[in-house]
Amino acid sequence: MSAEGTVIAIVLATVGAGTPLVYAALGELVVEKSGVLNLGVEGMMLLGAVVGFIAAVESGSVVVAALAGMGAGAGASLLFAFLTLTLQANQVATGLALTIFGVGVSAFLGLDYTSVALESLAGVHVPLLSDLPILGALVFSFDPLVYLSFAVFVAVTVFLYRSRWGLVLRGVGEAPASAHALGYDVIGIRYLAVLFGGAMAGLGGMYLSVVYTPVWVESMTAGRGWIALALVVFATWRPARVMLGAYLFGGTTILQFHIQGAGVDVASQILSMLPYVATIVVLVLISRDATKIRLNAPAALGQAYHPDV
Amino acid sequence: MVRLESRPQPSQRMRYASPLLAAGLTLVTGFALFTLLGEDPLHAFYTFFVAPVDDFYGWGELGVKATPLVLIGLGLAIGFRANVWNIGAEGQLTIGAACGGGLALWLHDSQSPLLLPAMIVVGALGGMAWASIPALLRTRFNANEILVSLMLAYVAVLLLSYLVHGPWKDPDGYGFPESRLFGDAALMPLLVAGTRLHAGLAVALAAVVLCWLFTARSFLAYQMRVAGLAAPAARYAGFRRSRTIWVGLLSGGAAAGIAGVGEVAGPIGQLLPSVSPGYGFAAIIVAFVGRLHPLGILFAGLLMALLYLGGESAQIELGLPSAVTGLFQGLLLFYLLGSDVFINFRLRIGRRAVASGESAATP
Amino acid sequence: MTAHGSARGRAVTLITAALVSTVALLAAPAGMAAEPLKVGFVYVSPIGDAGWTYQHDIARKKMEAELGERVETRFVESVPEGAEAERVIRELAASGHGLVFTTSFGYMNPTIKVAKAFPDTIFEHATGYKRAPNVGTYVARFYEGRYLTGIVAGKMTRSNVAGYVAAFPIPEVIRGINAFTRGMRSVNPDAQVKVIWVNSWFDPGREREAADALIAQGADVITHHTDSTAPALAAEEKGVHVIGYHSDMSKYAPTAHLTASTHDWSEHYLRTARAVLDGSWASAAVWGGIREGMVKLAPFGAAVPDAVRELVLAQQRDIVSGALHPFAGPVRDQDGNERVAAGATMTDEAMLTMDYYVEGVQGKLPK
Predict the structure, then answer these.
(1) In A82, B76, C198, C240, which residue has its Cα 20 to 30 A from B127's Cα atom?
(2) How many angstroms separate the CA atoms of B74 and B207, rounded?
């Protein structure tokens, strides 16, 4: 394959590898902006992956699978919301418990569907545009869920920074007591944010099981939920940087495979560290300006709030 | 209508009753779950919670399993109380195991009684060194410790994998990724013959006492607690945030490092590509289920250990898939975390009391 | 292969079987005639529907079907290699299992330790090298299947590049890569094999990414030594060939699948259980290949022409008869050093400790 072809292949693979992270991290970003820290992303992704996969096998429809995956993620997040927002349980511990729960439940639900063969979803072929040299391959050959992730990115950005309700959501994350005093339903808004985060994590998991691999096996997210969580911090709670981080992480993974394939003489374990180390290094570079971070990090992140207190 | 109302003071009674409530809820759910799966619920409960510890060896295993969970939970709790989020104890455990185990391999022929203590010290230092990276990056460059500690956990596991696949591979091991078996001087002495209960448990119990003394008696712990509860107040009082971060991360790192040595010098006896089935992550839950209190962490660690053992026993005795275990563990943890609500709140059934002054503001 | 029923049917059967056997166990009055031999299995991963553990479980079920009431089997899945394994193995021995199969390399030392404490229990450890009076070992000559599938790859490739998705650089995996490469180059001297290590036995996402990277780098035949079906699915989607491992993966890649090198443990499990039942079991190191039925090729895909099929089957007969050995000299490593002289054959010892690539493999082996 030509060098140009290789570059295109790397870029395409990077977007594919990054997409589950984009969904899960954008969802978690909205959750954290409302002041809630949900560490259960891995569990919600797994539930979305298994339920989406079952729906895809049974219905043969990607739309149904996507809705089912979102529903499963949202359902799991509702459990989290009830415990942390209504019952005031500790958010960190509840999120971790949600991950354990999600690993177990998804494995249980998926017993009958493990490694069932599923037709993979073909990319959209836009006539003329997809046939353009290079640009056609780069811009017009993804599957619909990748384009949807771009749309979600735009929607989240516009919502957070250009809409009144986005302002309210950020206010709830900054100063819940003030938002409450202004007459906003802090708990209700946080519920909605958590549900959105769950739905997006579910969609990310469903993308992985139905579109990307496409196969369901126990614990198949293999830590991607944790990476998504880290990306929100990495992005300093800004949607554009979430995209950057997801593709940086996905791209480094793909790139190290290409380096190996080309036969570079470095232990593969060392190469496999690259995505993690790269993320840390870039975070350090971004974080050096302390005030910028403080402006973006939700002030009430992870703190329980009850209107009575 | 049912609603929650905050208590003027946390209820002491509920502090003790809430775990019982969680246990009750778990029993009810478990009853339904096992019945649905076609099992006799009583037999299933017995298999899950009693059978693993119905003999001497079983109690030993409970201790073996709880040792790393309690140790790491204690170390992490010091940081958590101060809102220092070390999520990467798994990595610090792995590096601690690699450092302590590396010493054991380097001094393979040593018979010195000092070897094991030296391994523990080196392991603790290794864990602290790994934890000092997020601490340094946080205090110097403001980089969030959740991300850095978590990413370093993956790096640590890959590093150990590299070591046992490469330079530390057993020369007589047919190329398999395992180190040599440690010499006797590098192994934890057994506490009870006929079990695998090792000296690591004694270390963990000593740590419970030390942590209790530290949190109850030291001014530093008080400062850190204030920093956790009210950061601005701590700043006004002149408590240094960077010291809180360093102490919080290093205590977790040291505890995890010692736990790592406990695993490789205890039940494992050599270095393997993976030395922990996720103790570093499970210990986070242990810390919170134990309400960040040393004694609570001890009990939570034992409970968590029992849940793992019960899951294995359910597979062997009942043939239940391992997936059921995860489901059941998740439920019990949810109940435990959720029940704590009654410490600070009470249920109010019926219409809101007229006296409630802020009802207008509550939507 | 009849073993691949519908996944759903399989799981339902499995659960039913588990329930029925539990009920039967509980209902059985004490002291019934001839206690069945309880056989325990320790699995490193979930059983799934393809892969290493799946092949062991097929064999477990075949053994159970064959011996009927004379045996009763139990398995524990997803047992981590390390401190956990010893407890699970011990638990099986302590609960009256007379024969315990521990099916992953990392269970070696725990198996030996437990065996010392339970001298009356017989243990069989897969892929290890330590034995004891009550511990035998068994492993298959996977490399024979690899060599034959290499021939298929050498005949089918157009780009003369095959891609190999590999888990960890241990001798067993390296031996497979080398045998595959030698098979490929025996019919196609220009062929090259590219290897990517994913550092995981099981991560469908990464396996897929590695396969994609290999395809992008020009490989038009993909094979793997990892546990999931993701490489097969990637090959099917990208329109290149794939050669499966562990299990027949044709249902995941109906057009791309050429064949697969699969393991069949059922004969060994059956033979071992019978030997334990009649008291004739003795500790041994079993290393069976195609001749013993431990290694089998999956049926050829439609894309494989008859001439290639005949060639491969002829070579398979030669392996069975001993006329052909995948590592018959001359064997040169990738730096040109002669490892086995012409006319000689590599010893089992040398194969077991293999830590170099043969010529034709691209890239350097991580040291």
Answers:
(1) C198
(2) 8
